[in-house]
Amino acid sequence: MRTVGVEEELLLVDPESGEPRALSAAVLARAEQNDAGQDVFEKELHEQMLEFATHPQADMAELHEEIVRCRKEAAGHAGGIGCAVAALATSPLPVSPAVSMNDRYRWMAEQYGVVVHEQLVCGCHVHVSVESDEEGVAVIDRVRPWLSVLTALSANSPFWQGRDSAYGSYRSRVWQRWPSAGPTELFGSAQTYHQRVADMVATGTILDEGMIYFDVRLSQRYPTVEFRVADVCLDSGTAVLIATLARALVDTAAKEWREERAPAGHSVSLLRLAAWRAARAGLTEELLHPVTMRPAPAETVVRDLLEHVGAALEANGDLDRARETVAELLEHGNGARVQRELLERTGSLRDVVTECVRRTQGT
User: Is 240 exposed, middle or buried (0-12, 13-18, 19+ CB in 10 A)?
Assistant: First the structure.
């Protein structure tokens, strides 16, 4: 069974005002006093963010337990210096992001200007193990049409600088401003993939391979493919669902590759439109169906994703729980819907953040 690891980026906020606080260095210093924190929590581009990474897990229940534990540990470290953590993909309240200045981030700030200084967004990245780069690239080619559905399921960033963005996942729209971000054309082989990456680095537009921000990419550090399309999820169970579906997509794609079934030939232009529609709609309106690239109800598209990867889910023992979590999301909504309902009920973005802090620490 393939292993899965999750990286979550959390927002550091003031527990009273709900405003983001640039305290990641202090939180990391506190975490490093404990040996367990040294290989779990990491600095990110902005000082208002804290990232953690789970260990590779084959059992999704164990992955869920680790995500919950890491969130609680992050909350404990943050609370020790007077702030809190929230699983929010953008700040509901206005913020002036503070860039973490090391050599790498300084180069990025000089190269990309205002993009870096506005790019305070929190994602959920999922690593799924593969046997080789060749298998990994075959997977990348075959999962492309389904990635927008993961964005829709995870959408958790409706607000931007104190206003409703009209998007479910505005984070994904902000992320697209990086020059290397977004969907990719078909590669066909690992050799072509690596040559494409080398050519992109050679332009000088990006610093190195670490700045290849494809929607799905081969990891530099691990023998995995890395899914990068999801918002950080308000509910830890949603994060586990995204990880579960990512693994099932990899299993399904690898099987198709071994059976010499060609990947869908959708153009990057259509994939961009599908990604935009998913970011805009979340689960509340129509999405572009990954097979036809025509509008279809979000519930239909999500159900068809479950059917597409159903055999892999069943083989991994994940089918029942995936169905249950999907049903809960379709009934009660993803993070974007929850945040909007909280604002409608309380009339206060500060109260939205306060409740999201509570949910982050309690899940």
Answer: buried
